[in-house]
Write a structure and sequence with these properties.
7 strands, single chain, five-stranded mixed sheet, 294 residues, alpha+beta
Length: 294
């Protein structure tokens, strides 16, 4: 099995394990699905954080309106009255007017916060440093963890127009959002190895690009169609570059100091003193004279 280190725009994403015999046409959609799954979890976590602060999402016709406008138009958040958090709520007004302000009680907020933390740890980019693999199963486990926490706090479910519920049911609409620019279409995604595109339409396999050794680790870069080849890997890491610069600076300072010293400066050294032996016998080393002392 080959360990594939996936990067996107020179930033490490996750580690993935697969055989060399895996066709590229099968590998690309799997990697894109995990990448998009991580984005999905981050989006859900962000919305659950807002849910814990300000309650469920307001209906589209009310969202962004002032209280006077809502009253004047005789609009009502019926779903907000049905979908109340377990154990009651405190009113905490949403400053941007997206949510109804019915904040869950502290105990329920802690359940949501704990689920967010655990889900993020499951798909964290730091797993690359820890040499831990990421699979679609782990991504789904993180999503189920969030879904379970929301079900505990909101046993009556969230309103059908709430973004969190739409994400759980895979009917989210990202059109016109920043998130839509981050998602990569698995059907058109591209993988690159050593600056060369791994073609999907020639029945190529991973081994045709990465070699014949199964127990190895390779770096593959993911990109959208039309983005062109990603930048090549740097010759040295950022830490190695810093160490090299520090060594060059220390060497430069040493050369400056040597240049400032006189050629006969060594004559002031103790080892160059011809009377050193005589002074040691007479105990004349380290003698200091101070006025007023006996």
């Amino acid at each position: 099995m080959v360990i594939v280190h996936i990067k996107y725009k020179d930033e490490s994403q996750f580690l993935f394990e697969t055989p060399l015999a895996t066709p590229v046409d099968e590998l690309v959609p799997k990697i894109a699905a995990i990448y998009n799954g991580r984005l999905k979890i981050n989006r859900v976590c962000m919305e659950i954080e807002e849910l814990a602060k300000h309650g469920t999402l307001l209906p589209p016709e009310i969202m962004g309106l002032t209280e006077d406008q809502v009253e004047e138009l005789k609009l009502k958040d019926d779903w907000g009255d049905k979908c109340t958090p377990s154990g009651g709520f405190d009113f905490h007004k949403d400053p941007v007017g997206r949510r109804n302000g019915k904040q869950p009680k502290k105990q329920m907020r802690e359940i949501l916060d704990k689920a967010i933390k655990e889900a993020k740890e499951k798909i964290s980019k730091s797993l690359v440093i820890q040499d831990k693999l990421l699979t679609m199963k782990i991504v789904q486990e993180a999503l189920n963890l969030l879904k379970g926490a929301v079900m505990i706090v909101y046993p009556m479910k969230l309103p059908p127009h709430d973004i969190i519920r739409m994400e759980f049911e895979n009917i989210e609409d990202l059109t016109g959002t920043q998130a839509s620019l981050e998602v990569i279409d698995p059907a058109t995604a591209q993988l690159w190895f050593c600056g060369k595109e791994m073609y999907r339409n020639e029945k190529k396999k991973l081994g045709d690009y990465a070699g014949k050794i199964e127990s190895c680790k390779v770096i593959l870069k993911l990109s959208k169609k039309g983005e062109g080849p990603p930048g090549r890997e740097p010759i040295m890491s950022e830490e190695d570059r810093k160490q090299l610069m520090m060594h060059a600076y220390r060497r430069q300072e040493e050369l400056k100091k040597l240049a400032q010293d006189d050629e006969d400066d060594y004559m002031n050294s103790e080892w160059a003193d011809g009377t050193n032996l005589k002074k040691s016998f007479h105990g004349l080393h380290n003698i200091s004279w101070r006025p007023g002392t006996k």
